């Protein structure tokens, strides 16, 4: 078994997932990256890691990534769950199929990966799971209905997980990004942010890396807003 720190990043081919992979690699982690586009394999090769082309909506693809990681390094210290984009639309016009699709994209992506990785971390008596969620999980917006609903469920899941596995030194937290530069910019959105700017994918990655680090060793079950002051509820 290797003594190296190892991070698995699901949906890490672009945007905040890719930025998180780069930051974790810079912090000394060996990285294993899953993406559906093939960009994750290219990024992993660049970073000296493992890349698998597949979907975080597939148990088989996730298992291929986890198995390859364990075969090469023998441990997983951090799991980062990112996500793609789910359905949007007028609230009463969203079909059953699209609600289910939103749950697949924004909630079950985490459940599947955690089911595979958490037992490994429990065996190690150490591990950090970080889920990239949304600033609108607690102040939902009609712009992102399936995301807000599914990720409110993710917040509940995270609290339950933290209560059950904190004693095993396995932590789970959510990062809640606001308007980030991986999205198309509009002046109206920019003006809605007290900091008067979009955040960067690198700022999200820095928060992810902190939550994966020993410095965050007493933080679990939390939802960390990284949104320039956009949302304000307690």
Automatic annotation (TrEMBL):
Q: List all membrane-crossing ranges.
A: none
Q: Which organism is this entry from?
A: Azospirillum melinis
Q: Kindly list the organism's lineage.
A: Bacteria, Pseudomonadati, Pseudomonadota, Alphaproteobacteria, Rhodospirillales
The record ties this protein, via InterPro entries, to: NAD(P)-bd_dom_sf, SDR, SDR_fam
Give the family from UniProt: Belongs to the short-chain dehydrogenases/reductases (SDR) family.
| This protein's name | SDR family oxidoreductase
* Coiled coil (residue ranges): none
